[in-house]
Write a structure and sequence with these properties.
Elements lengths: L10 H13 L2 H8 L3 H15 L4 E4 L2 E4 L1 H26 L6 E7 L1 H4 L2 H12 L3 E7 L2 H9 L5 E6 L6 E8 L3 E4 L13 H4 L5 E2 L5 H13 L7 E2 L3 H9 L5 E3 L1 H10 L3 E4 L9 E7 L6 H15 L6
Parallel strand pairs: 3-4, 3-5, 8-9
Antiparallel strand pairs: 1-2, 5-12, 6-12, 7-10, 7-11
Helix pairs in contact: 1-2, 1-3, 1-4, 2-3, 6-12
């Protein structure tokens, strides 16, 4: 049907539309909005009439946005984030007296690096609050895309659509072991050398394990870890208490290296250096003042790499 190009989109209609996208149904959206289902339906129908296209595919089990609906959902999400930023800036009055910094991160950064950065920043700006979500690596960027985090901190090996990388640094896989371990005498190690000792590794679905498994596959090497866990601190404590050898990035074990309780050695197997640490934000988004300021401190903390022992 022919239609006139709309000159504007109503804020209420977009807000209701965004809730339906988030909830997957009109009834669930109406509950969250505290309005009648009929009011939500009218706003959706009005948008579809205004744009001259269907915004949802309606199924018995819910509503899924069409291609046009996905485009509009992106606009609605950005408007919501921009409004949140404006409110945060007004409340903080650009003085960092108040505000919330939302960070999504994977396990390796949540144990030491992020808490230390939050403490350092909060001492300078006592009115600020932090919300740190520890999720599997692949879900970090999803939190940014959903508008549920301001800053993402994760390991990555490939670019992602609609994600801006504010900072990147190499994060090769290192062997981590106690200072008195026989392998600690060597300047570098190989996976074959690690395989001759009790070994703790992350599970097969993690990026670091996939890198290790690929390197082993190229060599026809079989690893038989005595401990498998997706918790980075458990792996490090396994080595700390004399259980054997594990693997980590430098940033994940930095505090223990500085204390001298563990040592790290580079692994020379091909492919174990093809991983980066990325500090991510949503592409095209202007961060709230508090998040932007914390971003600078976080990058400084990441770059402060001590010399490995």
């Amino acid at each position: 049907m022919p239609h006139r190009p709309p000159t504007h989109l109503q804020d209420t209609a977009l807000r209701y539309f965004h809730e339906v996208v988030q909830c997957g149904s009109v009834s669930a959206a109406s509950l969250r909005l505290h309005v009648a289902s009929s009011a939500v339906s009218r706003q959706i129908s009005g948008l579809e009439a205004q744009l001259g296209t269907a915004l949802f595919e309606r199924h018995a089990r819910g509503m899924q946005p069409t291609a046009a609906g996905q485009i509009l959902a992106e606009l609605a999400r950005r408007i919501s984030l921009d409004a949140e930023q404006a409110i945060d800036a007004i409340h903080a009055l650009d003085s960092l007296r108040a505000g919330l910094v939302r960070i999504a991160t994977s396990d390796a950064f949540a144990n030491e690096l992020l808490p230390q950065a939050c403490v350092a920043f909060q001492r300078r700006h006592p009115g600020l609050r932090f919300e740190v979500s520890m999720v599997p690596t692949l879900q970090v960027s999803a939190k940014l895309l959903a508008g549920e985090a301001d800053i993402g901190l994760r390991f990555s090996m490939s670019p992602l659509k609609n994600i801006a990388v504010v900072h990147r640094q190499s994060a090769p896989v290192l062997a981590v072991l106690p200072p008195g371990h026989v392998l600690a005498r060597q300047a570098s190690l190989t996976l074959a050398e690690l395989a001759r000792h009790p070994l703790a590794l992350p599970p097969a679905e993690t990026a670091i394990r996939q890198m290790i498994d690929l390197a082993c596959s190229r060599q026809g090497l079989q690893l038989d870890p005595v401990l498998t866990t997706n918790h980075a601190k458990t792996l490090l404590n396994f080595a700390l208490h004399g259980g054997g050898v594990t693997v980590s990035s430098e940033v994940g074990v930095r505090h223990m290296l500085a204390a001298g309780s563990l040592v790290a050695r580079p692994l020379t197997d091909a492919g174990l250096d093809l991983r980066d640490i990325e500090v991510q934000t949503l592409a095209g988004r202007q961060l709230p003042a508090a998040a932007q300021a914390f971003l600078g401190l976080l990058v400084q903390e990441l770059q402060a790499v001590p010399s490995p022992r």
